[in-house]
Amino acid sequence: MRFQSTCRRTWWSGYRIIQNNYVLAVIKENLTLLFCDVRGFTPISELFDPPGLTNLINQLLTPLTNVILSNKGTVDKYMGDCIMAFWNAPLEDDAHPYNACKSALLMLNEMDPLNERLKDASGP
């Protein structure tokens, strides 16, 4: 599988955590967003039955999610094979552009081991 991601900066209004207390506020913040999905996933997905596809998605999204979370990101949603994540909310992160780009690069690094595991599982 080949993976693609996009980082983008935008504005966000919502909750901000202040001193470990949730404070309801509308705060304009500069965020970094990341969207990632698998190129050509539809033809790949057609090769699997529903349980097999669920297993494939879990094998893909789990390590990618772990990378995002370990770099101070927040997963907003999963859309099939796509992950939408952002940095600098609800917790403040002064290095959010760096952490998002670092995550994107580390996510790319996760693809080779994943592809090897999938290749081994499918046989020769």
Topology record:
Blueprint: E1 2-12, E2 16-18, E3 21-23, E4 29-39, H1 41-45, H2 50-70, E5 74-79, E6 82-87, H3 96-122
Antiparallel strand pairs: 1-4, 2-3, 4-6, 5-6
Describe this structure in words.
The chain is of the alpha+beta class. It has one domain (2-122): 2-Layer Sandwich (Alpha-Beta Plaits). It has helices spanning 41-45, 50-70, 96-122; strands at 2-12, 16-18, 21-23, 29-39, 74-79, 82-87. The protein has a 4-stranded antiparallel beta sheet with strand order 1-4-6-5, with helices on one face. Strands 2-3 form a two-stranded antiparallel sheet. The model has no long low-confidence stretch (mean pLDDT 82).
Distance between the termini: 17 Å
| Helix content range | 40-55%
Might you state the CATH topology name?
Answer: Alpha-Beta Plaits
Q: Give the overall shape.
A: elongated
Strand content: 25-35%
Q: Mean pLDDT score, rounded? A: 82
Q: What composes the largest sheet? A: 4 strands, antiparallel
Q: What count of structural domains?
A: 1
* Multimeric organization: single chain
- What is the CATH C level class, in words? Alpha Beta
Question: How large is the count of helical segments?
Answer: 3
CATH superfamily: Nucleotide cyclase, GGDEF domain
Structural class: alpha+beta
Unreliable spans are none
Radius of gyration: 16 Å
Can you tell me the CATH architecture?
2-Layer Sandwich
Helix/strand order: EEEEHHEEH
Strands of the biggest beta sheet: in what spatial order? 1-4-6-5
Number of beta strands? 6
